[in-house]
Amino acid sequence: MPTTVKGVVARSEKQPAELVDIVIPDPGPNDVVVDIEACGVCHTDLAYRDGGINDEFPFLLGHEAAGRVAQIGEAVTHVEVGDYVVLNWRAVCGQCRACRKGVTQYCFDTHNASTPMTLEDGTELTAALGIGAFAEKTLVHEGQCTKVNEDAPAEVAGLLGCGVMAGIGAAVNTGAVQRGESVAVIGLGGVGCAAIAGAKLAGATTIIGLDVDGKKFAAAEELGATHTIDTKGLEPQQIAGKVQELTDGVGADVVIDAVGIPATYETAFYARDLAGRVVLVGVPRPGVELTLPLLDVFGRGGALKSSWYGDCLPERDLPYLTDLYLQGRLPLDRFVTGRTTLEGVDAAMDSLHDGETLRTVAVIER
Predict the structure, then answer these.
(1) Which listed site, 157, 170, 216, 279, has its alpha carbon 20 to 30 Å from 335?
(2) Cα(49)–Cα(295) distance, rounded to whole angstroms?
(3) Residue 366, pLDDT above cutoff 90
(4) Neighbour count for residue 297 (Cβ, 10 Å)
(5) Which residues contact 52 (CB under 8 A, 6 or more apart)?
(6) How far apart are CA 334 and CA 348, in angstroms?
(7) Burial grade of 358 (CB within 10 A; 0-12, 13-18, 19 or more)
(8) What is the tens place of the pLDDT at every residue in 225-271?
(9) How confident is the model at residue 47 (pLDDT cuts 50, 70, 90)?
(10) C-alpha angle 110-111-114 in degrees, rounded to nearest 5
C-alpha cells in the first residue's frame, strides 16, 4: 500500500520550501523504499528551490542522505530490508556508451525509481537528483543504495552522497593527486574543504586553501591545508602569483576550482604548473561564459578536467571512505557543523548564503 509521510517540497521558483504530506508509492520491481535517518543541506537543493537547475516544479528536495531499507521490489537483489545505506545519484545503467567503454563514472542513463512520488492530490514530484531525501521515507532504484558500515552515524555517512564525495573525489579521482605533490583549492565551503581532506589523504605535501573569507581558513587548516591565501580584492593573476610563491615559483601540480565562476577558473588556470591539472568541481550557473587566450591554453600541458560527483563509483568509494572515517583516517564528522529538523530545512538552505557552516544536516527522529 502507498505510504503518506512528511517531506520538504519546493512548489515554485524562489519561494520557501514547505514541509507537507507526500505519498510514497509501492516499489516497482527494482525499486526500494528507504527510511531516511539524516540528510545534508546542500547548495544543489538551494539551486533546485530557486530555479537554478530546471523548472520541473514541484521538487522533493534532499539527496545527501543515509538510512535503512524498509521495503524492496520483487526483483531487487542488490539490497535487503534492514540494510544500512547511503543514497547515491549514480546508479549506472551498464549499457550506455560510457559504461560500455569502462568509464561508468560518466554514465549517461543512470537509474531512478520507476514511479514518481506525489503530493496527496496526485501531483507528481520531481525528486532532487532522483533521490528526494528531505523526507521520512523516499523511493529510489536499488542501484542508488550503497551499503556501508552501520557503525558510521547517518549524519556523517550521508554526506558522502554528494558534496563531501564531490570534493574528495575531485582531488583523489579526477585530479589524481600523488604523494608529494602540491595542491591549491579555490573556495573553502563544504566541497572545497573536502578537496583539502582528499588532497591530504592522497599524500600531497603542500596544500593551499584560497577564499575571500578568512573565517573559513580554520576549518581548511584542520582538514589539512598547510597554507591559506585571502583572495579578497585580488585579480586572478595576482592570486596565481601568490600560489607560485608557495610552490617554488612554478605553480601547483593540481588546482581545484570549487567555486565555478570565470574569475576562479582563470585563477586556477594560471596558478597551476605548466604541466599541472586544473579540476573544475564547482558547478557554473547556466549561461556563464569563460574567455582565455587560446595561445595560453596551447602553451601549457597537463589537463583541464571537470569533476562530476568527484568521478566516484559509489560501490567502490562510499564504503571505502566510510571505513577510513571509522579508522580515524578521514575526519568526516568535522563537516557536520550544524543540525536541524525537516521543519528547519528551508531556513538552513537560506543560511548557505552566509557561508558560515560546512554542512547542516537534517536529522529525522523516530
Answers:
(1) 279
(2) 40
(3) no
(4) 10
(5) 46, 285, 286
(6) 18
(7) buried
(8) 999 999 999 999 999 999 999 999 999 999 999 999 999 999 999 99
(9) very high
(10) 150
Residue identified by cell 550503497 is 146
Parallel, antiparallel, or unpaired: how do β-strands 84-87 and 59-60 relate?
unpaired
Cα 82 from Cα 66, distance rounded (Å): 12
Q: What are the helix (H) ranges across 185-224?
A: 190-202, 217-222
In order, the DSSP letters of 84-121 are: EEEE-S----S-SHHHHTT-GGG-SS----SS--EETT
Largest Cα separation within the chain, whole Å, is 65
The full set of domain ranges for the chain reads 3-161+331-363, 167-308
Q: Mind spelling out the 3-state secondary structure of 66-85?
A: EEEEEEECCCCCCCCCCCEE
Confidence class for position 120, pLDDT limits 50, 70, 90: very high
Q: Which amino acid is at 239?
A: I
DSSP state of 283: P
Which of 365 and 93 is assigned the larger pLDDT? Answer: 93
What span, in angstroms and rounded, lies between the C-alpha atoms of 300 and 292?
A: 12
Cell of 184: 591549491
The mean pLDDT value of the chain amounts to: 96
CATH architecture of 167-308: 3-Layer(aba) Sandwich (3.40)
> Could you give the angle at the alpha carbon of 354 between the alpha carbons of 350 and 358, nearest 5°?
90
Residue 245, SS3 per DSSP: helix
Grid-cell match 571509522, residue found: 326
Q: Is the pLDDT of residue 101 over 90?
A: yes
Contact 15, 38 (CB under 8 A): no
* C-alpha cell read off for 196: 583539502
* Radius of gyration of the chain, Cα coordinates, nearest whole angstrom: 20
Give DSSP secondary structure letters for 116-144.
--EETTSPBPEEGGGT--SBSEEEEEGGG
The amino acid occupying position 224 is: G
Assess contact for 273 and 252: CB atoms under 8 A. yes
- Does the pTM surpass 0.90? The reply is yes
Give dist(CA 77, CA 185) in Å, integer.
Answer: 40
